[in-house]
Amino acid sequence: MEHSEKYLIRSLMFVPAHNEKLLNKASTSDADVLLLDIEDSVQPVANKAVARSNIKEYVSAGRFKDYLVFPRINDRESGQLLRDLTELTIDGITGFMCPKSCKGEDVYFIDKLLETIEYEKGLPVGTFKLIPLIETAAAVLNAQDICTASKRVIAIAFGCEDYITDLQGIHDSGGQSIQTARAMIAMAARANGVIPIDTVHIKVHDLVDLEKNLIYAKNLGYEGMLVLNPKELPLVHQYFTPTEEEIHSAETMLALAKQAIEEGRGVAMIGTKFIGPPMVKAAAKTLAKARLAQSRAKTQVQ
Length: 302
Hints:
Blueprint: E1 11-16, H1 20-26, E2 33-37, H2 46-60, E3 68-69, H3 81-88, E4 95-98, H4 104-121, E5 129-134, H5 137-141, H6 143-147, E6 155-158, H7 160-167, H8 176-191, E7 195-198, H9 207-220, E8 224-227, H10 233-239, H11 244-262, E9 268-270, E10 273-275, H12 277-301
Parallel strand pairs: 1-2, 1-8, 2-3, 4-5, 5-6, 6-7, 7-8
Antiparallel strand pairs: 9-10
């Protein structure tokens, strides 16, 4: 089964892990994934130890048991990476977000570190998953290599601000400067069965602009978005969850396709449209995602 059919990753919310007030808020949020940050938002360096300690405490206490938990670790040049991985490869952590993943080798390096740690701790190899962050021009060009560098990779996420800085471009209000990168990242992910995650929406209080970006991201094939503020979650989930109409259409399509096979007809039709294999495949994925979303909703109610 492809990664995109196993995981519900509509919203990935950044939470500075040294900030207990924000960790407490995150523990009651509707986010699918908590990105417990030990990297950029955790300064000075002394706070990184506080962040790791907080993550262990909250996870061990079951505060994040209803979430996919991905700490954003420090990069391989930081001097902090080994500490991050050895301390946080614990039960309750789903995996890690890898910043500054410029090429496949960066991801492979972390994969092998995790493999050694898993052996040492007596854990099955592959226990911890990875979400590389694509935030440089080189990373965009190497996105396919990054997707295939490790079987642990379940998604790749776009970090537009660092990308624009690296590109020495301008983040224009219409998003033209990041349009090509956005499309390439989505294509690389889908080509390799991993989930494409769109960049953060910087103007967190402008929900009208957020909705425009969500429509665009969904059209490109994105399945989720990096989130900075809980107020963004309802809209993000609205656009990355199959609607009742989409579910009904998918069910109808699959039923008609099955009936056509049983009756010995080559191709089914819905109205005046032929139901070809790509449409059948898309319908099955829609229903799989709907089931994940329904299961998640039940978990949040309990």
